[in-house]
Write a structure and sequence with these properties.
- This protein has a five-stranded antiparallel beta sheet. A three-stranded antiparallel beta sheet has the order 8-9-10, with helices on one face.
- It has eight helices and ten strands.
- The chain is 39% helix and 16% strand.
- Strand 4 and strand 5 form a beta hairpin.
- With 292 residues, the protein is an alpha+beta fold.
- Helix 3 runs antiparallel to helix 4 and helix 4 packs across helix 6.
- It folds into two domains: 86 residues, SH3 type barrels (Roll); 175 residues, Enzyme I, Chain A, domain 2.
- The chain starts with 26 loop residues before the first strand and ends with a strand.
- The protein is globular and about 60 Å long.
- Keywords: Chromatin regulator, Nucleus, Transcription, Transcription regulation.
- Pfam families: MRG, MSL3_chromo-like.
- It is found in: Nucleus.
- This is Chromo domain-containing protein.
- GO terms for molecular function: promoter-specific chromatin binding.
Length: 292
Amino acid sequence: MRSSSAGTTDDDESATISDEYDATMETDTDVVSKDGAVESLSTPFRPGEKVLAYHNLRIYEAKVLQVDSKEKRFYIHYLGWKQKWDEWVGIDRLMIINNENLQKQKALENELKPKNPNMTKGMKRKTMSKLIDIHIPSSLKKHLVNYSEYITHMGKLVKLPCSPNVDDILTLYLEHRSNKDGRESDTAGEVVSGIRCYFDKALPAMLLYKTESQQYQQATANQISPSKIYGAEHLLRLFVKLPEILFHANIEEETLRELQHNLQDFLKFLQKKQSLFFLSSYETPDGSCTIE
């Protein structure tokens, strides 16, 4: 499965998924590799088999079209989707179809539903003709570029846990909105809750570089939420991916426009306070060397 720089990927690029979604029930099957050779691969999935596949925080039914034995990846078609969404995915994106995994699919859908009943009134599937536009200020984009340099060329990782972490930043934003509006804002509270929920779900699924996976597994070994460990650098990556995530969400157009406005307001706050939030130290994966 191809790797990509987090926060700078194209819309059709496949996401990196956490190792927590391991497939089971492996069997041996013959597949054809890229050079045309037939070889045996231990895999639970065969060409033509229907599976469940993770895509943008949700689980969809898909069909395996090809198996790449050398890279141990699968070319799949999402059932009911246009062919342009067909993609190569790793085995960690796929699950067999059984009652347990279907229940997992249903539970995940329920988790992603808006908790506020007012958010569901008049809700309808919007036409997905274009992505929501979230403008990231150039001064914030520099942090994405700088971190890309750190991790891809220098082999550095953000030292965890971060201070302030994502929860801290969201709490400060709520205080900022309360002072600005002269009262506690229900809308701001909903936006903050949504950002936190999306961040915790999206981080292992699509916000990490491949070289950060082991660090994530270690940092969350005690079931600590990512929003309590990671900081502004990783939070900013979420805003790069949010248009893609919201592209598949059932959100009324008017609600989506209001959400877009609130997300831009949060980015302005992040930009204004960037000298306080982007303070992370960096280290090598083995923790042997740190830089500020």
